Amino acid sequence: MTQDKYEKMNEQIIGQTQAHQPGIEAKMVPEPIFDDKDYKGSGKLDGKVALITGGDSGIGRAVAVAFAKEGANVAISYLDEHKDAEDTIRCIQSYGVQALKIATDISKPESGKELIKKVLHEFGKINIVVNNAGKQFPQQNFLDISNNQLHETFETNIYSIFYLVKSALPHLSSGDVIINTSSITAYNGSPGLIDYSASKGAITALTRSLALNLAKKKIRVNAVAPGPIWTPLIPATFDKQKVEEHGEDTPMARRGQPAEVAPAYVFLASNDSSYMSGQTIHVDGADFTTS
């Protein structure tokens, strides 16, 4: 799919909102591009098993589909977006691999054990862990960030990674990988998403530290830091005007599509990135003023 087609899609997006996070992809107008038909798999992940949190929609869905194209069996976790999850499973299976969906709240300490147990029961192993699920709650006034909001943001965005990695690590071995979803806000900051930005900064630091810790075990840990991407989290977070203007302030003057981010995860999951660990790939429409 050419960049022109992505730009044309961007022009079709109108202001819209959703009442609850993390949002429903099936309700977006137009729905995000998650499966780039021009992207052809080449067996980079044949025989691998991947687990992707927040894999039912948005970036997680696009990554799940790209992994499937590369030959991986894929498990996705999600909160309660059952239709989105079912649609994603059907798309994964259409590429001839196995798929598993698991509804769980990843912010709970027991969720990591539950996810790994189910993945191992279904597939017998795990090779790729993608920590992708997240939440954000805009507050223009710092004093309006309640303790409950702060806890919910960190429990979902960063604590969940500790829970899942601790459960997955005993089952990972040489050549396996962990990929975390950071954000442009971890580098550029965001005056209206302070707690979210802080949680994403923590993910970046965790990625670097865990990479050093696991280097001798030959388990690589990297991250992707997306800029403004058209996912359900956007209409579930902002008002109609902000949704319509989303991404216009990037040098490319548009938001990105999930299918434009997914190849970065394929690169980090495959042997193509065998000499990379502790690094972050920025997919942000050239908005690298401070990154």
TrEMBL record:
Gene Ontology annotations of biological process type: bile acid metabolic process
InterPro entries named in the record: NAD(P)-bd_dom_sf, Sc_DH/Rdtase_CS, SDR_fam
Spans traversing the lipid bilayer: none
Signal peptide limits: none
Coiled-coil ranges (or none): none
Superkingdom assignment: Bacteria
Name this polypeptide is given: NAD(P)-dependent oxidoreductase
Species annotation: Pueribacillus theae
